[in-house]
Amino acid sequence: MNTAFFNYLFSARTSIQAKIFISFGTVFCLSILLVSFSAYYNSSSTIKRTTIDNFTASIRHAEENLRIMLDDIDNMTTVITTSKEYITDPLLNAHDQVTYEGFMESKKAEDFLSSLMAYKSYISRIAVLGTNGKVFRTGGSLLSRSVIRERWAQELLASPRKQILYNATDEGTVTVGRPIYVAGEPLGVALIDFNSAILNKVFDIQPSTDMLILVVDPSGELVYRSSEQVVATNIIFTPYADVYKKLQAAGSDHTYRVGNRTYFAMHVTSSYTGWTTIGLIPENVLMREAYVIRNQIFGIAFLVLVAVLVVSIIVSNQITKNLKRLHKSMRLIRAGLLTAKPEVNSKDEVGQLSEVFTSMMSEVRGLLDDIKRREKQKRETEFKALQSQINPHFLSNTLNTISYLARLQHVPNIEEVTNSLIDLLRIAIRREEYITIREELNYANRYLDIQKYRYLEKLRVVYDVEDGSYDCYTPKLILQPIVENALDHGLSGKKSGGLITVRIYRMGEHMIFEVTDNGMGMSPEQVEALRQRAPTGKEGSTGIGYHNVDERLKLRFGDSYGLSIYSRSGQFTKVLITIPVLREATVRDIERLDRG
């Protein structure tokens, strides 16, 4: 699917407008989707984590408030159990509470308990139960003498420290109890009750009515529940029993499904009371703000995407509108109407291209008129002059190229070909033997400008010229024949990917021209045969082949100069042209000597 998409996108048959629209749309769509999903994921994670952290912090804060209240109650139980005058002595006395002395002791003890209870609105009752049946109490309902014999009271009496009991006296209260000992002997227990309704204030922390808080004592009894829909007194009889068990087993917070709803459950177990506070947040409540943000993000993303697509349609249409006008003019020119002019008024790249094309066609028309006139008047003279300067084979190739372009394209690129040919002729007929390396490169470039229409897309030329080399001099027409041989012989068998590399650099007092092609190459035997073969004067399109160039350089500068050939069959051919470094003053001296 991806391959088909890219094949369609980059297909030559797909219009530029479609390519721009599809490319813009695809890139922006993917970018917007990526940014939107990233923003939604990050925001939802942050909101979820913040909500959970805040809820957990609220639970811990409630636990801390409860601990402070229980600490206060615990301190009161300590005061009670250690009060010799008001508690332990009356418990040790043998006076029956129905006697006057017993009544006064009870009143004294209960006044003491009342003083402790003062200003403690959350305390509903303070009581002392003696093992001898005595009961001292303030607040709340009466307690019978038999309460001390109940199981929970006996367990508390046997405990060495305080205990926190829920609903111990079956009145829906939370009781903090501590045993009373004197000389290691149990005398009774001190009890302080506070109504479980106070827990409603302590744990009234859920930010949403859909959230649920359960406080469970070690036996599973529900000390507190935030929802009236939970009517059971023990958690094992509620739908959340499995959640409680899994939290106890896993020891960490998780997501659980209860009925048809998914909850995120967290729990905090108090080391002070042993109670476990469970917070349950429905997933839809937890993600409510995230869903709102998600809808906003995707709504904005959709609007941005629509805007981008509309803009891309407008821009692509504007660009292709001028291209279509330019294309229409080219089609008219190809049909033979050379006076056709594109109606493009923009100043952008397309407008500049249109101006260049119009200017080029104007010059081409002038050149065509000039060429026709010259050919009519001086055909034979010009032909003989060209024959005397350049190889007929090269002339034939060049004229064939021009004819090929004129026939297929109705002269859209004849300016470049004609100018290149004119430059070649001018350099060839110049009388100077030496020209600058810049001019020699220009000559080779002009030749390649013509040949690129013959080789179309299969040829690429790379130049690497050392700084300071352009203004040095060289005998003219030594580079072009080597480049021509690389084209005609080295790259003739390649259908595509042809590469010619031209390097020019100094090596001591020598100037090196290095021409490398990645063509068919030659075997060692072929290289040796080429080195040994006598020059025939037919290798190059200018009448100057490998051997002619080599012979010219050796005759001019000596046997240490000339051509070197390196090749590997099927891989490459490299030709090195070695001449001395020639400055302008040196060339002038040589020319004076040549003139005698």
From TrEMBL:
<keyword id="KW-0597">Phosphoprotein</keyword>
<dbReference type="InterPro" id="IPR033479">
    <property type="entry name" value="dCache_1"/>
</dbReference>
<dbReference type="GO" id="GO:0005886">
    <property type="term" value="C:plasma membrane"/>
</dbReference>
<keyword id="KW-0902">Two-component regulatory system</keyword>
<dbReference type="Pfam" id="PF02743">
    <property type="entry name" value="dCache_1"/>
</dbReference>
<protein>
    <recommendedName>
        <fullName>histidine kinase</fullName>
        <ecNumber>2.7.13.3</ecNumber>
    </recommendedName>
</protein>
<feature type="transmembrane region" description="Helical">
    <location>
        <begin position="20"/>
        <end position="41"/>
    </location>
</feature>
<keyword id="KW-0812">Transmembrane</keyword>
<dbReference type="InterPro" id="IPR036890">
    <property type="entry name" value="HATPase_C_sf"/>
</dbReference>
<dbReference type="InterPro" id="IPR010559">
    <property type="entry name" value="Sig_transdc_His_kin_internal"/>
</dbReference>
<keyword id="KW-0547">Nucleotide-binding</keyword>
<dbReference type="InterPro" id="IPR005467">
    <property type="entry name" value="His_kinase_dom"/>
</dbReference>
<feature type="domain" description="HAMP">
    <location>
        <begin position="317"/>
        <end position="369"/>
    </location>
</feature>
<keyword id="KW-1133">Transmembrane helix</keyword>
<keyword id="KW-0067">ATP-binding</keyword>
<dbReference type="InterPro" id="IPR003660">
    <property type="entry name" value="HAMP_dom"/>
</dbReference>
<keyword id="KW-1003">Cell membrane</keyword>
<keyword id="KW-0472">Membrane</keyword>
<dbReference type="InterPro" id="IPR003594">
    <property type="entry name" value="HATPase_dom"/>
</dbReference>
<dbReference type="Pfam" id="PF06580">
    <property type="entry name" value="His_kinase"/>
</dbReference>
<keyword id="KW-0418">Kinase</keyword>
<keyword id="KW-0808">Transferase</keyword>
<feature type="domain" description="Histidine kinase">
    <location>
        <begin position="478"/>
        <end position="583"/>
    </location>
</feature>
<dbReference type="GO" id="GO:0005524">
    <property type="term" value="F:ATP binding"/>
</dbReference>
<dbReference type="Pfam" id="PF00672">
    <property type="entry name" value="HAMP"/>
</dbReference>
<feature type="transmembrane region" description="Helical">
    <location>
        <begin position="297"/>
        <end position="315"/>
    </location>
</feature>
<dbReference type="InterPro" id="IPR050640">
    <property type="entry name" value="Bact_2-comp_sensor_kinase"/>
</dbReference>
<dbReference type="Pfam" id="PF02518">
    <property type="entry name" value="HATPase_c"/>
</dbReference>
<dbReference type="GO" id="GO:0000155">
    <property type="term" value="F:phosphorelay sensor kinase activity"/>
</dbReference>
